[in-house]
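Input sequence (793 aa), recorded before submission:
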Amino acid sequence: MVNGPREEERVVPAGDAVAVIDAHGTVTGWSDGARRLTGYTTAEATGRPAADLVAGDPRAAWRELRASGTAVVAVRHRDGRRPELALRLCPVRGERRAYVVTAVPADPGRTLAELVFRQASMSMSVFDTGQRYLRMNDAACAVMGRPEAEFLHRYYPDTVEDAEHSRGFLRHLEIVAETGRPVHYESWTRSPSGRRMHAWTTEMWPLRDRADEVLGVALAAFDSSEQFWARQRLAMLNEAAAGIGTRLDVVRTARELAELVVPRLADFASVDLLDSVLQGDEPTVGQVEADVELRRVAHHSLTAGVPEAAIGLGAADVYPPYSPPARALATGLPVLARTGDPDLDRWFGRHTARSAKLRDSETHDLGLMAVPLTARGTTLGVAVFVRLLTPEKPDVFDEDDVSLARELVSRAAVCVDNARRYTRERTTALALQRSLLPQTVAGQAAVEFASRYLPALSRAGVGGDWFDVIPLSGTRVALVVGDVVGHGLHASVTMGRLRTAVWTLADVDLPPDELLTHLDDLVGHLGTDESGESGEIGATCLYAVYDPVSRRCTLAAAGHPPPVVLYPDGRVEVVEVNAGPMLGVGGLPFEAIELELPEGAVLALYTDGLVEARDRDLDAGTAALCTALAAPADSLEYVCDTVLGSLLPETPGDDVALLVARTRALDAEQVAVWDLPADPAVVATARKHVTDQLTRWGIDEAAFVTELVVSELVTNAIRYGGDPIQLRLIRDRTLICEVSDGSSTSPHLRRARTFDEGGRGLLLVAQLTDRWGTRPTGTGKTIWAEQALPPSL
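Predicted structure, token format:
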């Protein structure tokens, strides 16, 4: 080569045809290869215009060479022939408008290869072993944003920014040149000619001469941005499937969406919902022309503390109809905007807080995307994504971003709607259940009690746990705890029906085991629908009756955990009761047991949610209950709090009902009992006993009514009942008169005709007393009547 740059010697084999042309188009250099190819000696070629050597239009040939760097040109041979040569043009470094032209005989295959290189759709370049540019095709020039001439023979790091991806690219070029092995390199960068980030997949391989010596490095770079973004979108959608809607909680779901999209899709994200959604109601959007009020439920930012947020969590804000969030709500479609858009600037300018945030920000230019949360044809709110636009990150949201955001927001909207529906059902079930549970219990003095009901904070919803304190005749009281299998409205409704049935059966004053038998039949009927098909309704129940006169408690259980008793001396015992089958099984008997409870004993009844948990079995839970119950406590309310605090986590997985009752006892002086023979003459004696007892109690004012009641009840017992007959007076909050006999036939009121001599006794008793009734006993029945004590007492 003559007068060529030294760095080109490695890539121009000796003997090639090379000419050097100065700025005036004069040949100043001529190689031996050029002599053999054209017939002109160095002396004949140098010093003459290069155009004299071109056969045809030299200007057209020159334009093609300058434009593409290569051309096939017919030249004038010294012997008169006009062979076609493949010419390649390279500028000479350090010489203004001087060029080196290499030539080879025109080979169709070689020409085609040059065209393939030049016109390839991927970026292709050739570097020497010192990482300097030797060739670039058109696609590479487009990526770099400048023509090939500005890069040739320049060191790669001098042509790009000093960044991590540039250093990685250079290191891979060096590895190929040093090792002679091809490499694969992937990078995420912005090309010098563009503003958007790109993913590049680059293949690099060595170029070798005939001696297998490495002459340089060739590369082909593929813009794999579409595939990269597709993988990113798929990854985000996969994460959304697992990470959005982990709980049936509206606020948590909104927060999961905001945290997922930052920073991969946006620099800031917020989720605003309609108040009706948060309350579990059907969402309603006002007129499109009107302002829309939304409540901020979640936001997230690249910066700690979310300084971009102009609205605090839980606060409401009014969005004018021209604002992007309101437009997204009204149309149901995503809305894109950026600073400079009239509506966006108008909205920011109107909102003092947002305007101040934008002024205080270092970056005043931003892109915004508002996407409505729509599920099942209903709009629930809007998600807003914001990008801060800087020279380093100038990309606004595009259609691909909109497509991804719609997918993510759509999933979040379905989860929000599911949570809303769950909230509505749970709120309804909880309200129903609380309305069915006892609020106050009056008319009993047998026990002092306290209770707690805690609904589960799980996806299962509100269950069917319940408890009751039911006053019975003779100052007795029934304590009830039950649990319907399942959760939700169905369980709450079933619980209400069972509670009503227990009250009805308790009013009949059935023994606990008989009461559970009737309740079992009822559950069996409830479990069968109108078509006769059997359902899956089940329940457990514990029914206990405490008598403060005898100080004995009779109880029976249907598949329910046993009660626990704290005695006045500090002992804690689990009552050994045969639980029997669950209600609804049918056909199996229930067994009642009886135990004596001294005055001041505390009886604890509960549902299994108190003692059972995933990390604790029933025995361990019961032992923990005994320990908590034995702890010193000033009141039964404190006992309840201690038990719940000791046994339950912050978020119980099942409903819990707890009822604790401290027993009271009636003094012997408050009860008077007489055994009577089945003789009509004893009625007068009975009246005398009653009158004398009332005088001793100091309530002579009640003597008249009590004598009439005793006369009627004793007469009926003698006439229709028979031995054994017993009369009992109880003085507590009321005055109770009881007459027992040996017949199990229950009396009933009937209307006496004008000339009937009898039939008016029970009607008279019902008129003179506040309450009356009958209950079965082991040997017959007891008829009782209750009247209020005189006001002075």
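Checked by second reader. Residues 1-14, 530-534, 751-759 have pLDDT under 50 and may be disordered.
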